[in-house]
Design goal:
The chain is mostly helical and 92 residues long. It is built from 3 helices and 2 strands, in the order ββααα.
C-alpha cells in the first residue's frame, strides 16, 4: 500500500499524510488535505502542553473551542504560542 503524500503547509515539505481525517468538520478536512502525519504529531505534543498548562478539559465546550482556535493558528495562522512560564520537563 502506497502512503498518501501531502505538501505539508506547516513543515513546507512533501511528506506522508495522515491515514484518516483526525479532526471533524472543515478544519479536519483542511488538516487532512494539507498537513503531514509528522506535523500532526508535533501538534499533539503542543496540544498536551496547552491542556496541561491551561488546565483544560477537552470535554468542556469552551476549552474545545480554545484548542480548535489554537490548532487553526498552529497549522494555518501565525502559530500557537507556548504558554508563558512553561518549563519543559528536561529543564526542571
Amino acid at each position: 500500500m502506497t502512503e498518501r503524500m501531502v505538501k505539508c503547509m506547516l513543515l513546507n515539505e512533501e511528506l506522508p499524510g495522515l491515514a484518516f481525517q483526525t479532526y471533524p468538520g472543515e478544519l479536519g478536512k483542511k488538516i487532512f488535505d494539507n498537513i503531514s502525519a509528522q506535523a500532526w504529531q508535533k501538534w499533539l505534543a503542543h496540544q498536551t502542553i496547552l491542556i496541561n498548562e491551561h488546565r483544560l478539559s477537552p470535554i468542556e465546550p469552551e476549552h474545545r473551542k480554545f484548542l480548535e482556535g489554537e490548532m487553526e493558528k498552529y497549522f494555518f495562522g501565525e502559530g500557537s504560542k507556548i504558554p508563558e512560564g512553561y518549563v519543559p520537563e528536561d529543564d526542571k
